[in-house]
């Protein structure tokens, strides 16, 4: 029983082997880039994986499950449904959200509106979270707009259905996150309320070829 308690005290960083497809994004060593080179080559170009861009060991320790519960369990977080339009939004204590992570998606019968996903951009301004977010060290590069800091926690095999983003950085602190990317002029077939897991199961095996004009042009997995 104690072993189970110890395991539950930290994040479950296991993942489904069938989700582990090769990453076809270019990898760039951030340590070999100047700020000017990054702006010229990558700020608004095709997405890349930046290696050596982060020194967030302290923040990684601060985001361990045990510490988050002990230090911030009563603080409120904003959670959203995982459909394309985030129709369902609510606020609840972090301690009440984390039990959702104990039930990864395994069924194709759930709507994305039933899947809660914490991805909160209010962390940088909320007084109770300000000190926590101050520990994060962003990449040493600037984009062509003022950044908005977000912090997210999601269960295994969850994620938001297809949606649009401008330039930005994403960093994984624990576990793995898989990105599915398509060029701006291509829209893959999808239903806004379909779960990401269902889309991967039903469509991705047919659409991971770069020469498929109607498919996903890039799929990425990062640790």
Topology:
Blueprint: H1 2-8, E1 26-29, H2 35-41, E2 48-51, H3 57-62, H4 65-72, E3 76-81, E4 89-93, H5 94-97, E5 116-120, H6 127-133, E6 151-153, E7 177-181, H7 196-202, E8 218-222
What can you tell me about this protein's structure?
The chain has helices at 2-8, 35-41, 57-62, 65-72, 94-97, 127-133, 196-202, and strands spanning 26-29, 48-51, 76-81, 89-93, 116-120, 151-153, 177-181, 218-222. It has 223 residues and is of the alpha+beta class. The strands form 3 sheets. Strands 4-3-5-6 form a 4-stranded antiparallel β-sheet.
In short:
The protein is α+β, with helices and mostly antiparallel strands.
The secondary structure category is alpha+beta
Shape by Cα distribution: globular
* Average pLDDT figure: 77
Please provide the count of β strands: 8
Integer-rounded radius of gyration: 18 Å
How far from one another are the termini? 30 Å
Strand percentage, roughly? Answer: 15-25%
In helices, the fraction of residues equals: 10-25%
Strand order of the largest sheet: 4-3-5-6
The biggest sheet, with number of strands, parallel, antiparallel or mixed sense and barrel status, is:
4 strands, antiparallel
Q: Low-confidence segments, ≥5 residues, pLDDT <50?
A: 1-7, 207-223
Number of helices: 7
Order of helix and strand elements from N to C terminus: HEHEHHEEHEHEEHE
């Amino acid at each position: 029983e104690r072993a189970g308690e110890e395991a539950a005290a930290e994040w479950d960083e296991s993942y489904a082997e069938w989700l582990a497809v090769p990453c076809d994004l270019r990898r760039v060593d951030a340590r070999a880039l100047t700020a000017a080179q990054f702006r010229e080559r990558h700020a608004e170009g095709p997405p890349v994986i930046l290696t050596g861009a982060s020194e967030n060991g302290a923040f990684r320790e601060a985001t361990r499950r045990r510490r988050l519960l002990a230090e911030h369990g009563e603080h409120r977080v904003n959670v959203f449904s995982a459909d394309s339009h985030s129709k369902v939004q609510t606020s609840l204590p972090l301690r009440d959200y984390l039990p959702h992570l104990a039930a990864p998606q395994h069924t194709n019968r759930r709507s994305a509106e039933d899947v809660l996903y914490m991805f909160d951009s209010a962390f940088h301004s909320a007084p109770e979270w300000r000190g926590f977010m101050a520990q994060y060290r962003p990449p040493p590069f600037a984009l062509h707009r003022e950044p908005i800091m977000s912090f997210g926690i999601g269960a295994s095999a969850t994620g938001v259905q297809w949606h649009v983003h401008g330039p930005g950085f994403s960093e994984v602190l624990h576990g793995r996150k898989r990105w599915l990317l398509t060029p701006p002029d291509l829209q893959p077939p999808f239903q806004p309320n379909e779960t990401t897991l269902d889309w991967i199961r039903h469509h991705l095996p047919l659409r991971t070829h770069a020469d498929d004009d109607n498919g996903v042009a890039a799929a990425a997995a990062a640790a």
